[in-house]
Design goal:
- The chain has 189 residues and is mainly α.
- The two termini are 28 Å apart.
- Helix 3 runs antiparallel to helix 6.
- It has one domain: CDP-alcohol phosphotransferase transmembrane (TM) domain (Four Helix Bundle (Hemerythrin (Met), subunit A)), CATH 1.20.120.1760.
Length: 189
């Protein structure tokens, strides 16, 4: 078990039975996390990076809990998996849109370009995995999965170093795309 799963389990184990007991569904947790992400994007767009970053981290808690609750309550469904993945992609895109709005004053051209580069590579990372899984190839490989991308963005916002975070995200998302394409290529030879 990797360190991310161990950390997630430490967080979810005490909360999931309570969430199940009060009758929350995994899809409702997914939806709540999505709404919190939209609010985070609004704070980012108006330049309040600290609150935006804290809200991103809070929304991430719901992203961890929805799957844990689905497994715990034996409520995993194929639609739930699609719903979660779809809102994950939308959430990531909405955060980038918040930054585009913030930087759209005409003097932040580099940040805008980097945002689009990161957005494209982030979506490619998810697309490659989905396409590989459609070919019956497990493709969770890669340096920067969604968890690392969201954490690095939140960290950049927290310490007001968004440009550095974007540069690192552009680099590491590119590397992850290459890693996944290579992984699929190796497994289809």
């Amino acid at each position: 078990m990797d360190i991310r799963k161990i950390a997630a389990t430490k967080i979810t184990d005490p909360l999931v039975p309570f969430l199940d007991k009060i009758g929350l569904s995994p899809n409702s947790l997914t939806s709540i996390g999505f709404v919190i992400t939209i609010i985070a994007a609004v704070f980012i767009a108006i330049g309040n990076f600290l609150i935006g970053a804290l809200l991103i981290l809070f929304a991430g808690l719901f992203d961890i809990l929805d799957g844990a609750l689905a497994r715990y309550a034996k409520k995993s469904t194929r639609f739930g998996a699609l719903f979660d993945s779809t809102l994950d992609r939308l959430s990531e895109g909405i955060l980038f849109v918040g930054l585009v709005v913030f930087y759209s004053n005409g003097v932040h051209t580099l940040e805008i370009i980097l945002l689009f580069v990161v957005m494209i590579f982030s979506f490619l990372i998810s697309y490659i995995r989905a396409r590989a899984e459609g070919l019956n190839i497990d493709c969770q490989t890669g340096l920067f999965t969604r968890t690392e991308r969201v954490l690095l963005l939140a960290l950049g916002l927290l310490v007001d170093q968004v440009l550095i975070a974007l540069i690192l995200l552009a680099l590491f998302t590119f590397v992850t795309v290459i890693q996944r394409v290579f992984h699929v290529w190796k497994n289809t030879r």
